[in-house]
Every structure is written in C-alpha cells, then in structure tokens.
Specification:
The complex is a heterodimer of chains A (241) and B (273). Chain A is 38% helix and 25% strand. Chain B has one domain: MetI-like fold, CATH 1.10.3720. Helix content of chain B is 79%, strand content 0%. Chain B is built from 11 helices and no strands. In chain B, α4 packs across α10 and α8 packs antiparallel against α9. Classes of the chains: A alpha/beta (241), B mainly alpha (273). At the A-B interface, α3, β6, α5 and α7 of A face α8 and α9 of B.
Chain lengths: 241, 273
C-alpha cells in the first residue's frame, strides 16, 4: 500500500530522517520502535501527508501522496491518531467525531451539522466500537484523558481510512490500559483489513500484537524484520547510548 | 531583534544587560523625569475655587434627588443609553466579525490575492478604530443631524475596527495541533475554521464582546453629551443647573447598568467554559 522511496526530511539544520526506503502492504501491522528523537513521529507525519519530505517520494496505491492530497483523496486512505489526541475541547463529542466526515462533506453540510448534528447513528456506532458511552452532547473538555483518546479513535473510524497511523498511542497510559488500547487498535484494523502503523516503546506489546517491527535510530532504519525475528541483540543496539 | 538573538547565542552564559525592552524602560524613565521638571510647582496647580466645588459635590451625596419624577427620567435615560450601546455594538459585530475573519487570513484564500485582501482589510480596520467615536459622532451628526442613528453609527464604526482587530488576533492564536489533525481528516480551510478555529476562539471572543459592551455603555453615555438623549445629556443638564444631587443619581444609574452587564457576562462565560 505504502511505497516509501529514499525519503529524507530536514528541519532547518537537523536531519530527522535520512534516506529511508520501505514498503508496507495490506494486512501488515507495523510497529515503529526507537529512542526518542529517532524520527518515528517524522516518518508517521510524512506517511500521513502532514509534512512533505525534503527529498524522495511517497506513493500510496501507486499514486503520489501530493497528488492524492491535492485531489482530497488522502483522507480516505490515511487516518492519523496524534500523540495529544488533538480534539477541539470546546465542541461536543458528536462534532469531534463528525470531524472525521469533513473530507466527505460539503461546506454547507458541515455548517448545517454544527446546528443540527448529522450522522448521529454513525457516531454512536463508532463510540460503541471504541468502548465508551455514546454521550454525544458532552463537551470533550469534560471527558477524561482516556475517553478523549477513544473519541479521537472514533473520529478516525468515521473517517474510515485504509491505513491507521498512531503516534505513541499508549505513551500516557498504565500497562493494563495500554494493552487494552493496542488491542482495540488491532481489532479495528483487522475488522476492515486496515494497515496499522504505530510507534511505541513497549516490546511485549509489539511482540504480541504486531506483525512487523522497524527500528529507527538517528533517522535511519537499523532493522526491519518480522516480529518473530526480533532479537534482544537488535534492541540493545537500537537503544544503545 | 535579529541582532539581539545573535548576541545571545554568541554567549549564552552571560546576561544581556541592554536588551530592547530595557532600553525602552530607561528612555521612558528619562522622559518622566524631564516632564516632571516641566511642571511649574510654585504656581497653583489646582484652581482656587476647586476645593469648594469638590466639597459641594461630595456634600450633595446627603442631598440626593430621589423624587419619582427624576428617578423616572434617570431610568429612561439609562434605558436609552443601554439601547444605543446595544445597537452600536450589534452594528460593530455585523461589520467586525466578517472583517476580523478575513483579516486573520486563515480561510484558505488564494495565496497572492489573499495576502492583498488581508493587508487591505487590516488597513481598513485600523482606519475605523484610529478615529475616536466622538469624532465619528461629530461627523455623522454633521451628515445626518442630531439623531440616535448618528450615535449608533459612530459607536458601531469605531467598535467594528477594535473588535475586528481583536477577533483577528484571537482567531490566529488558537493552538495549532487540533487544526492539523482536522486537516488530516481531509477538511478544507473553511471547515477547519468552523470545526476548530472558531469554536476554540469563541469563548475569548465572547468575553471580549462583553468587555466592549461595558465600554459601549460608557461611550454611549459620553456621546449623549453632544446632544443625543441618554445619561450623558441628563448629566450635562444637571451639571448646568449645579444640581449635584441629580448628577449622583445619574452616576449611580450608570454604575448599576455596568454592574448588570458584568453579571450577565459572567453568566454567559460560565455556560461557555
């Protein structure tokens, strides 16, 4: 699905990614591991089309990512769950979930929905899927951090993309809740056969739930192996100071 | 600015004693010293009858004009002042909100023409607010005569300039991350505006509108000094009669008006946050 060819990304004088090449296919669940600052977030942002590479190109289903974005088709392919769930705290849950529909909706329809919310049933279904009470008319700022994260996932579900990207989705959760959340992400990616690419630090979760693991260090791919071949020696080398 | 950052990176271990704000503080202190020196301290600073007038003014606190007929006049004048303020502010919102949105430059206008439009809108807003409402009032009275419409337009035009400017800043200063994630769902700039920028700025915009509403009441009271009915005109009439008992009543009515608006704005802000 993703075809990443020789991409680099510089932020001013810092090289965040150096000549990264990789393919990701339908059915894969990829874990990105690596020390802080190794370029995991940058890679995810590039795959989501939020930023553009300094060099190299990214293709999704043989189409250039820039062309897809210009045509407005990118949101149907890639959904992104950010580290800070990045909801709009002042709006009710329903509008935050409906934000996943904006790529499909006309401006008039999205304006109208702010007055008389549309697609309520779809939102209720998405919220049930992510395991929270569908309280549509509560302000997001009134929800707990865990609930907000699930609303953010519900938004991506409504967006219904072919690939799910998640940037450190379990960074702020305790071990039990972390596993539950990864389980949820895996479940929703299996249900509709979506690609899942997530960055995380917990090796046990990687081994249990993912199919492939990519180790990034200082902007370069150190290893890219099936989970079964993930050895302690690779990890020691990856996190070596 | 650039030179300053360069200096700081040259030697991050040493404090920079002469930064821009500090130089400005020193200049202002010198200006204060010079201006104090200009005051002729030896002559009378207060005019001779002043203390007496002041005593009369404060003394009349025990001699307020409670008569129902005057209270009715004060009430009616307060109502007029309130209505002019409301009308003026509504007009300001009608003009200020769209101009503020355009001048914030975040609605996906095409790049080059967008820049020109934003620039022109900013200049227009600056023009509206740089002229005081009293001057606008004088202008409108000259144009359409002593009518409430003149006061409302004067208030509306000046306040539109102020509100537009503040709205534009508030809409630009919202956190960027939620907007980025809205864009990643495929939202257009207008949709990002509706689902992110505007709701995030709304509560600050509302409190600012209420703050401006208080100002509008004061302004509308002042505007009526130029002869448009309202609290200001009544205050002026009472002052002409040296009837401080009535002036006090009118001032109390003005305070009550402001306090009521303050309470109202508290209620609305609570429901928004």
């Amino acid at each position: 699905m993703f075809e990443v060819i020789n991409i680099s990304k510089n932020f001013e004088s810092v090289e965040a990614l150096k000549k990264v090449t990789l393919d990701v296919n339908i059915g894969e669940r990829v874990a990105l591991v690596g020390p802080s600052g190794s370029g995991k977030t940058t890679l995810l942002n590039l795959l989501a089309g939020s930023i553009r590479p300094t060099n190299g190109s990214i293709r999704i289903f043989e189409d250039n990512i820039d062309a897809l974005r210009k045509r407005g088709d990118l949101s149907r392919l890639v959904g992104f769950i950010h580290q800070q769930f990045d909801l709009v705290p002042h709006l009710n849950v329903i509008h935050n979930v409906n934000a996943g529909n904006l790529g499909k909706w006309s401006l008039a329809k999205s304006l109208f929905s702010l007055i008389k919310p549309m697609a309520e049933n779809e939102a209720i279904k998405a919220l049930r899927t992510v395991g929270i009470d569908p309280r549509l008319y509560v302000k997001v700022s009134k929800l707990s951090g865990g609930e907000q994260q699930r609303v953010a996932i519900a938004r991506v579900l409504v967006q219904d993309p072919k690939a799910l990207l998640a940037d450190e989705p379990v960074a702020s959760l305790d071990p039990k809740r972390a596993e539950k959340l990864v389980e949820l992400l895996v479940r929703i990616s299996l249900e509709d056969n979506r690609v899942l690419i997530a960055s995380l630090h917990n090796v046990d979760l990687v081994k249990k739930y993912f199919t492939r693991v990519i180790g990034l260090r200082a902007g370069e791919i150190l290893f890219d192996v099936p989970v079964s071949e993930l050895k302690q020696s690779l990890l020691s080398e990856l996190y070596e100071l | 600015m650039k030179i300053r950052t360069k200096k700081q990176t040259d030697n991050p271990y040493k404090q920079n004693y002469l930064s821009g704000p500090k130089i400005l503080t020193i200049v202002l202190l010198i200006a204060l010293g010079v201006s104090l020196n200009q005051i002729p301290w030896t002559e009378d600073l207060v005019h001779p009858g002043g203390v007496e007038s002041l005593q009369l003014f404060v003394g009349s606190l025990s001699n307020l004009d409670y008569s129902p007929s005057f209270l009715y006049i004060a009430f009616k004048a307060s109502l007029q002042t309130l209505i002019f303020a409301l009308c003026g502010l509504s007009l300001a919102l009608l003009i200020g909100i769209p101009l503020g949105i355009i001048s914030s430059g975040n609605i996906g206008l095409p790049k080059k023409t967008g820049k020109i439009i934003v620039f022109l809108t900013r200049i227009f807003l600056a023009f509206l607010r740089s002229i005081h409402e009293l001057v606008w009032a004088w202008f409108f009275i000259a144009a359409i005569g002593l009518s409430p419409i003149a006061a409302i337009w004067a208030l509306g035009i000046n306040y539109a300039g102020i509100l537009g400017r503040i709205f534009s800043d508030l809409l630009s200063d919202v956190p960027e991350e939620p907007l980025l994630s809205l864009r990643s769902t495929g939202a257009s700039e207008w949709q990002v505006f509706l689902y992110g920028r505007f709701p995030m700025a709304l509560s600050d915009m509302t409190s600012y509108i209420f703050y401006r509403f208080e100002c509008a009441i004061r302004s509308s009271a002042i505007l009526s000094f130029v002869g448009i009915s309202g609290l200001g005109m009544q205050i002026e009439l009472a002052l002409d009669d040296v009837n401080f008992g009535q002036v006090w009543i009118l001032l109390i009515f003005l305070c009550i008006l402001i306090l009521l608006v303050d309470q109202w704005s508290n209620l609305i802000r609570k429901s928004l946050s």
